[in-house]
Design brief:
Length: 576
């Protein structure tokens, strides 16, 4: 990857589509940026920096407002390929100013606030650069200009401070920028590949005599693109989630806690989107293994209501969930995923009225029903809606309306469980989705492993991952739980560490350097130690063939981005 390659722009019609992606991303980032800037002003402003903080916040708000107005204006009409390169030049200017405005915060706030304020500034600026990668990566040169302007100002303050620690941070910041540019390049290339594929599909569909062959090719290429893009995005998002959890365990002011909660919420939204793709990939790969056991439905219905009722309230809808004491025999986690997808879909396509979740006893089966008063589904579409990426009333592919995978995932999980899923619907009046579950005579409520502060004290953990950020995040989090954590970037490093001090448990990424896998790494360490050391694999891969390979290793598999609670439970269960 050379510098000329980073600055090279594709042909005009592809560039126009990249611009549309970027403009769409910019729009959703304006309000969070406004809120972060105002919170920083309120938190960091003091007598020594009041004027400069006011000027800084005005500059940030102005650049964000310019970006939003510019994005909205160009999204209102199709972007002509002939004007694409001129728009790129304009975006470079606007986002370079935006990056410079954010980077100026280092000169305004660092050194004029308490240590906690300095930490907050560095955390926020790091998050801004990281999040801008996913927002601006569709046009790589725009992201490079934004990030370079921001990082240059911050690193110059570090370097000119004269403090050796800050100089080390300056070098680290440069390396972080290089890493982000590499990840942004991968994301940009994946997006460009998808755009090229869409244009190719349009051309191929015009050839009627090859319609079926073209459709199969498009579906395969689409799956490969989703898997590649998902893997590249999971790495930084996984590390970000772990770092945020570590930050949450440190002393923070109420305002810092509020900003952190907003950042965690944004991280959760990104994580949920990636997990939707993962769910679909796992079904395609055939690696979903149901664990059937008796459980009560009421706890599950309460969880879904607590999570999704606020979405209905925000739209002015009535959400009702009828209580039940009936136990069923199934996999509680997979049934929960099915019901969440059905309820989310019902809320998304209902504008007036409400949503009802209830169950009916039918001989020896329980029929879970999700009713809505939404747009309804015509008889001709009632099979198509279960097809992946198929959406009703969303020709513009608005991502606020989801990916079009919810019902495909629900149907795939129902088939994996051996349960029947069907619907009845009347256009204009609403729909009801029904999931048939076998009744059980015994209810076994699931128990939850919660951190007790002692379960992992002094446990020696060996982490194997070739991503520096992930290794650092894992080490910080595990040590905050009392573990003795050692990290390795390769199998050779892992063997050296294990020979010096045997680990009690091994955590490995699946895809490692040199075409090796986490299964190879764990097998080599176990062979060296001569014991069956507890281990599990953490992977960001969603390609069906990769999931099948990882599942066939017989080693427990977890998926990035991984919630800290999930990691904790996995460690406790493995040690038990």
């Amino acid at each position: 990857m050379t510098l000329p390659k980073l600055w090279k722009l594709p042909e005009d019609r592809l560039l126009a589509e990249q611009l549309r992606l970027l403009y769409g991303n910019v729009g959703v980032s304006v309000i969070p940026a406004f809120l972060v800037a105002l919170v920083l002003l309120y938190t960091l402003e003091n007598d020594s920096n009041r004027t400069m903080m006011l000027l800084w916040s005005a500059a940030v708000l102005t650049t964000k407002l310019l970006s939003a107005v510019d994005a909205r204006r160009h999204l209102a009409t199709p972007i002509a390929p002939a004007q694409a390169r001129r728009l790129v030049a304009l975006l470079i200017v606007v986002h370079t100013l935006d990056g410079a405005a954010w980077g100026a915060l280092a000169w305004v706030a660092l050194g004029s606030t308490a240590v906690a304020g300095n930490i907050m500034v560095l955390a926020i600026l790091t998050g801004i650069v990281g999040s801008s990668m996913s927002l601006l990566a569709p046009v790589l040169v725009v992201f490079i200009c934004f990030a370079a302007a921001l990082v240059a100002l911050v690193m110059s303050w570090f370097w000119l401070s004269g403090d050796s620690t800050y100089k080390a941070l300056a070098v680290t910041g440069f390396l972080y920028l290089v890493s982000l540019v590499g990840q942004a390049h991968n994301s940009s290339q994946a997006a460009l590949a998808a755009i090229r594929l869409r244009f190719e599909n349009i051309d191929l569909v015009k050839a009627a005599n090859a319609a079926r062959r073209n459709a199969e090719y498009a579906n395969l290429a689409k799956s490969k693109f989703l898997a590649a893009a998902s893997h590249d995005l999971r790495q930084p998002i996984h590390a970000q989630g772990l770092f945020l959890d570590v930050l949450a365990r440190t002393p923070l002011s109420p305002h810092q806690t509020e900003v952190l909660a907003s950042t965690q919420s944004a991280w959760q939204a990104s994580s949920d989107m990636l997990n939707t793709l993962l769910d679909f990939s796992r079904i395609e790969a055939g690696v979903v293994q149901p664990k059937l056991q008796p459980f009560g439905l009421q706890n599950l219905l309460h969880q879904i209501e607590n999570d999704l009722a606020p979405l209905a309230d925000a739209k002015g809808l009535v959400y009702r969930s009828r209580e039940t004491t009936v136990p069923v025999l199934s996999d509680a986690t997979l049934v929960g995923m099915i019901l969440r997808n059905l309820v989310s879909n019902a809320i998304r396509y209902t504008q007036h009225g409400g949503v009802l979740v209830a169950c009916r006893l039918r001989q020896q089966t329980i029929c879970m029903e999700v009713w809505d008063t939404g747009i309804g589904i015509a008889a001709a579409d009632q099979i198509e809606i279960f097809r992946e990426f198929h959406q009703l009333g969303n020709p513009e592919r608005d991502r606020h309306k989801g990916l079009g995978l919810g019902l495909a995932i629900a149907e795939g999980l129902a088939k994996a469980l051996g349960h029947r899923l069907w619907l009845s619907s009347t256009p204009g009046r609403g729909s009801v989705f029904r999931l048939e579950l076998p009744q059980s005579s015994v209810a076994m409520p699931a128990t939850e492993v919660l951190p007790d502060g002692q379960a992992l004290q002094q446990v020696r953990v060996l982490v194997i991952d070739d991503d520096d950020a992930v290794r650092s995040a894992m080490a910080h989090l595990l040590r905050s739980w009392g573990c003795q954590c050692h990290t390795a970037g390769s199998i050779e490093e892992a063997l050296d560490l294990a020979s010096a001090q045997a680990p009690a448990i091994i955590i490995s990424d699946y895809r490692l350097r040199g075409l090796r896998t986490g299964a190879h790494a764990i097998a080599d360490v176990r062979a060296l130690l001569g014991t069956h050391t507890p281990a599990f694999i953490v992977t960001g891969d969603t390609a069906p063939e990769r999931l099948r390979e990882a599942s066939a290793s017989g080693i427990p598999l977890l998926h990035k981005p991984l919630l800290p609670d999930q990691l904790y439970r996995a460690l406790v269960e493995a040690m038990a």
